[in-house]
């Protein structure tokens, strides 16, 4: 029997709720299957699904019920108004990270149009590509230790029609010996012991190398604070995303590395410490 859109949606949402999974994923799946945007979908809720759409929706809902992220099922995620390919090799871009991009764009207005920007641990390329879209004349480099992640990021750069210099390597190694106006990073920052509190949707399907860090989640911030001082221009900016309990520890690391810089903890839209900005002016 052919179902109407709202009937299939309600049934799928009930199934997801029974497994403590995100009900909103059913809407994203339905948008993908019907090729209708959110507003159009709401207007067409009483329309019947075609047999092909109905089959596709329920096949993909079965995948959702395993805990697989909806972004992996539909193959994309929206970030900063752009569409990005995502898969098991990269972290799914989060809304909080959009705030990092916005904060860096606001604080880097004083830099030349052709400022040199490095995104360390780029993953899907979301940060680097979004920055380049907003500042087309900037010279943007993006690095990652994972060749598979860089392959995804390169496809995303083509997808969004931007030119990024992608480099394979660990942390700051690919950008050593050069001077930078802006360095961005959303490094792994979850402490290993926190894994027991995490959603299986994240734990079982997203790359652990992009999630977890030693030293109570501070390992990569310590490395950045150690390695970045000789790489930054006299007037420059560092922006990193952090775990919500790490603000004071990470601020202290960057303040010690750059004693004369203005180092700020910035909260996200939910009121949680989420970003550190280190504004260097020597």
Notes on the protein architecture:
- By secondary structure, the chain is of the alpha/beta class.
- The N and C termini lie far apart (71 Å).
- The radius of gyration is 21 Å and the shape is elongated.
- Helices cover 39% and strands 21% of the residues.
- Helix 2 (24-34) packs antiparallel against helix 4 (51-64) and helix 10 runs parallel beside helix 11.
- It is built from eleven helices and eleven strands.
- The strands form three sheets. It has a seven-stranded mixed β-sheet, with helices on both faces.
- It has two domains: 5-74, Helicase, Ruva Protein, domain 3 (Orthogonal Bundle); 88-281, Vaccinia Virus protein VP39 (Rossmann fold), CATH 3.40.50.
SSE inventory with pairings:
Blueprint: H1 5-18, H2 24-34, H3 38-43, H4 51-64, H5 70-74, E1 76-79, E2 82-85, H6 95-107, E3 116-120, H7 126-134, E4 139-144, H8 147-159, E5 165-168, E6 180-185, E7 190-191, H9 200-203, E8 212-213, H10 219-227, E9 232-241, H11 247-257, E10 262-267, E11 273-281
Helix pairs in contact: 1-2, 2-4, 6-7, 10-11
The name CATH uses for the topology of the largest domain is Rossmann fold
Radius of gyration: 21 Å
Broad shape: elongated
Percent of residues in beta strands?
15-25%
**CATH top level label of the largest domain:** Alpha Beta
**Terminus-to-terminus distance:** 71 Å
Helical run tally: 11
Query: What's the β-strand tally?
Result: 11
CATH architecture of the largest domain: 3-Layer(aba) Sandwich
Strand order of the largest sheet: 5-4-3-6-9-11-10
Order of helices and strands: HHHHHEEHEHEHEEEHEHEHEE
Largest sheet: 7 strands, mixed
Write the CATH homologous superfamily of the largest domain. Vaccinia Virus protein VP39
Work out the helicity level.
25-40%
Integer tally of domains: 2
User: Which residue ranges are poorly predicted, with pLDDT under 50 across at least 5 consecutive positions?
Assistant: none
Secondary structure class reads: alpha/beta
Mean pLDDT: 90
